[in-house]
Design goal:
Strand content: 15-25%
Protein name: ABC transporter substrate-binding protein
Structural class: alpha+beta
Shape: globular
Number of strands: 20
CATH architecture of the largest domain: Roll
Number of domains: 3
Distance between the termini: 20 Å
Largest sheet: 12 strands, mixed
Number of helices: 14
InterPro entries: Peptide/Ni-bd, SBP_5, SBP_5_dom
Pfam families: SBP_bac_5
CATH topology of the largest domain: Dipeptide-binding Protein, domain 3
Keywords: Signal
CATH class of the largest domain: Alpha Beta
Helix content: 25-40%
């Protein structure tokens, strides 16, 4: 097995893919190389709007770009901005010269102002701007970003794919249209609803020319079908190979990397059985995460010690021992646990948790749907508990944003419905602390405050399993799930 860090598909599945990976319409220029066929897990949920989670698809296809990007350590480095400086609550970014959008118009500071202002005033806001008020003003070749409070993470925030810079053409209506309006090495040319997308190499790119002539993407929510696409040669790159399928594939074609993604049971603290802290403690005490890792993930995951996993190497060393809250007696209390089918392992995790919690004295019902149909109910607190596979540094490279989004009383992704003054205070301190060791310690203190409430029970940290066909060269294996096809990726 190819690994970056230590750490037979069913015949019927092949039928699901027949014809799916035929080359899409779109020119390949003068290049005689092969287009890259990609099988992705989740279809677009918001028409590929960069203001939604669909932005990460745009980033993984190298079609939309941001002012800055992140290095391996999570530090900000230049992208569409070449330099920046802080002046209290204000950050000044210098916009790169010589960049054109895919519609041929030149990138200006005014374009940056338009894109960032649209994100800052969106409803709902992109997660990376939870709790952040900012204004953007263009002047010459610079853009000034001013926040209501001094924010040491502004550059990291602006690296989020949800703050991608698009041309004026993208903002003609109420929605944001990324087709032909990005700046990356690949131009998005066609989107077929939730089934497929096509991109061609953009030869006017400001950076190095992409080696591949284009990308053909097919959205394949079924994990067995994605694995079959790799096995049968119908796809060149397959993201999120299910654990159950990984062992059935040629191990030379898969790469496994510990990633900042935590499988967590969120408990509803606002209403129902888990409004009682002792019942939350009882649920936490009943869960045997090691058996889930062994039985469901076949050992291809890491038992959680906290919300932040081994992909953040510094986290475990900063934790201190804590005394867990006393558990109550469930006494047959009925609870409903929700989760979704898009990640193949989660329904099985739900079944295992059902058995564990029933053994502890709960009566457990399960509700399992596709994510697109269950997310709104989860956010509205419709379930007693919800199982979520959650990326912890997806947006800024810094976990403080994830912790705020999921556990602050005003967080936009607060599935636990948590409203705890101590947690809010710890989260605010972490957000205000400068980068470096002091910030890392503040983040761990915020994690401890969340865990003390038992509003969330972290179970395991996932590893990304990606399939690359034998002829694929230079595919990205990114723990943050921001990169997949880059200028260096091609098929021999």
């Amino acid at each position: 097995m190819r690994r970056l860090l230590p750490a037979a598909a069913l015949a019927s599945a092949s039928l699901l893919l027949t014809g799916c990976f035929a080359a899409a319409d779109g020119g390949t220029g003068s290049d005689t190389g092969k287009r890259i066929r990609v099988a992705m897990m989740n279809p677009p949920r918001s028409g590929l709007s960069p203001l939604s989670d669909d932005a990460f698809k745009l980033s993984r296809w190298s079609t939309a770009e941001t002012l800055v990007t992140l290095d391996a350590n999570g530090d900000a480095v230049p992208a569409l901005a070449t330099a920046w400086r802080q002046e209290g609550r204000t950050w000044v970014f210098t916009v790169r010269d010589g960049v054109t959008f895919h519609d041929g118009t030149p990138l200006t500071a005014r374009d940056v102002e338009r894109s960032l202002t649209r994100a800052a005033t969106a409803s709902p806001k992109p997660r990376i701007l939870d709790g952040v008020e900012l204004t953007v003003r263009a002047s010459g070749k610079t853009v000034t970003v001013t926040t209501a409070a001094e924010d040491p993470l502004v550059p990291q925030r602006l690296s989020s794919p949800q703050l991608s810079i698009l041309s004026a053409e993208a903002y003609r209506g109420k929605t944001v249209d990324p087709v032909g309006t990005g700046t990356g090495p690949f131009r998005l040319t066609k989107v077929n609803g939730t089934s497929s997308a096509s991109l061609d190499r953009y030869d006017g790119y400001w950076g190095r020319k992409a080696k591949a002539p284009g990308i053909d993407v097919t959205f394949v929510p079924d994990g067995t079908a994605r694995a079959a696409a790799l096995r049968t040669g119908e796809a060149d790159i397959v993201e999120a190979v299910p654990v159950s399928q990984a062992a059935l594939l040629d191990q030379d074609l898969i790469t496994e990397v510990p990633m900042p993604r935590t499988n967590t049971l969120y408990l509803n603290t606002e209403r129902g059985v888990f409004k009682d802290p002792s019942m939350r403690a009882a649920a936490r005490q009943a869960i045997d995460a090691a058996s889930i890792v062994k039985g469901v993930y076949e050992g291809r995951a890491d038992v959680a010690k906290g919300l932040l996993g081994p992909a953040l190497a510094w986290a475990d060393g900063l934790r201190t021992a804590r005394t867990p809250a006393p558990a109550g007696r469930p006494g047959g209390a009925t609870i409903t646990i929700g989760t979704f089918t898009d990640r193949a392992e989660l329904p099985e995790v739900a079944q295992t948790l059902q058995q564990q919690l029933q053994k502890a004295g709960f009566t457990v019902k399960l509700e399992v749907r596709e994510y697109a149909t269950i997310e709104s109910d989860a956010l509205a607190g419709a379930f007693d508990a919800f199982i979520l596979s959650r990326a912890t540094v997806l947006d800024s490279g810094d976990p403080a944003a994830y912790l705020y989004s999921d556990f602050a009383s005003r967080g936009s992704f607060n599935i636990a419905q948590l409203a705890d003054p101590a947690v809010d205070k710890a989260l605010e301190k972490a957000a205000a602390t400068g980068t470096g060791e002091a910030r890392r310690k503040a983040v761990i203190a915020a994690e401890a405050a969340v865990l003390a409430t038992d509003a969330a029970v972290p179970m395991l940290h996932e590893r990304v399993i990606q399939g690359d066909a034998a002829g694929v060269v230079g595919a990205a294996h990114d723990p943050r799930e921001r990169l997949l096809v880059t200028v260096d990726t091609h098929v021999e």
